[in-house]
Write a structure and sequence with these properties.
It is built from six helices and four strands. By secondary structure, it is α+β, with helices and mostly antiparallel strands. The chain has a single domain (3-143), classed as Arc Repressor Mutant, subunit A (Orthogonal Bundle). Strands 1-3-2-4 form a four-stranded mixed β-sheet, with helices on one face. α1 crosses α4, α2 (22-28) packs parallel to α3 (66-80) and α3 crosses α4 (97-118). The longest helix has 22 residues, at 97-118. The relative contact order is 0.16.
């Protein structure tokens, strides 16, 4: 997916659902999101044969700002129905086309959420990183 299509997808969702918050978007789309004990997994996303999307987040994320980047990443898998391959462990390298697109989506989605919540775009990567737990490796996705 090119950057323009990604931009459109994010802004069309925000216009339709009135927010850039990935948790609220998932709720507005009827996705089931639950926290659970997932062992070494941080998250998983799967699509049932009925088309229903289920996103599981590790209990460890419940009080962490990282829950936003993880949720935005999994939301993209749900939107694309590519989630069957989206089991990610803590030591994950975040590789592959689907993973890269989900990471790019998360960066853009959370930039839009930052603007929604704070009234301006983040001034630096550190601003968005502190607000939503983006890992250091996302810097290159956002600025290169």
């Amino acid at each position: 997916m090119n950057s323009y299509k990604l931009y459109l997808q994010i802004h069309q969702l925000a216009d339709r659902l009135g927010t850039s918050n990935p948790f609220d978007i998932a709720d507005g789309l009827g996705y089931t999101v639950e926290y659970a004990s997932l062992g070494s997994l941080k998250r998983l996303c799967t699509t049932a044969s009925s088309g229903d999307v289920y996103i599981g987040l590790s209990d460890e994320l419940r009080e962490s700002p990282e829950k936003y980047v993880v949720m935005a990443h999994e939301l993209k898998h749900g939107l694309d129905y590519t989630s069957c391959a989206a089991l990610c462990t803590i030591g994950n390298n975040w590789e592959g086309k689907m993973e890269r697109e989900a990471n790019l989506f998360a960066c853009s989605e959370l930039t839009a959420l930052y603007k929604e919540q704070y009234g301006e775009r983040p001034q630096s990567f550190k601003d968005i990183q502190l607000a939503y737990g983006l890992p250091d490796k996302f810097y290159d996705l956002m600025f290169n």
